[in-house]
Amino acid sequence: MRLRGILGGKGNPSNLDPLSILIGVGRRAEALRARRTKDKRFTNARSRLKRANFPLKVNVGCGNEPFKDWINLDLSPEARADILWDVTDGLPFPDDSCAFIYSDTFWSISQSKKACGSLQNAVDPCN
Ligand SMILES: C[S@@+](CC[C@H](N)C(=O)[O-])C[C@H]1O[C@@H](n2cnc3c(N)ncnc32)[C@H](O)[C@@H]1O
Predict the structure, then answer these.
(1) Using H for helix, E for strand and C for coil, what is the string for 30-44?
(2) CB of 115 sitting under 6 A from ligand 1
């Protein structure tokens, strides 16, 4: 059963060739690596938040223009971000924890569609 899952086939014996096995194992390894990276980013984000003032002020896609006393977030390791994060994965903050979410020259349509729900949840409507 497990082998079938790795191979991605439906139990067809023709899928049992070495190349299919290698491709299946490679995909699994890649997915595991991606999940570990996300988990590590999430842990780092949580630890950074312990030193933050709530409600948060968040600058999404800060690039090299971080704001003082804000949580600056960016996808790129080259950016001067406090938190390395891809907002299409949502936000690493609790609901209603943000007073402001700001973004300058960041959004593409596909990214905004993916990210908007979690940005909305993170903003406290009372702030
Ligand atoms: C054009 S730069 C703008 C930088 C800065 N806000 C400014 O106005 O100078 C866009 C930034 O958004 C970041 N970015 C793009 N997609 C992102 C994503 N999905 N999550 C977080 N940051 C992202 C890029 O890495 C880049 O630093």
Answers:
(1) HHHHHHHHHHHHHHH
(2) no
* Residue 30 beta carbon below 6 angstroms from any ligand 1 atom: no
125 and 112 within one domain: yes
What is the residue with the minimal CA distance to atom 24 of ligand 1? 61
pLDDT in tens, 67-113: 999 999 999 999 999 999 998 888 999 999 999 999 987 777 666 67
Decide: 118 in ligand 1 pocket, CB within 6 A: no
Residue-wise pLDDT tens digits, 15-47: 688 999 999 999 999 999 999 999 999 999 999
Asked if the model's pLDDT at residue 122 lies above 70, the reply is: yes
Indicate if 42 and 58 belong to the same structural domain. Answer: no
Whether 76 and 122 map to the same domain: the answer is yes
Residue nearest atom 12 of ligand 1, based on CA coordinates: 61
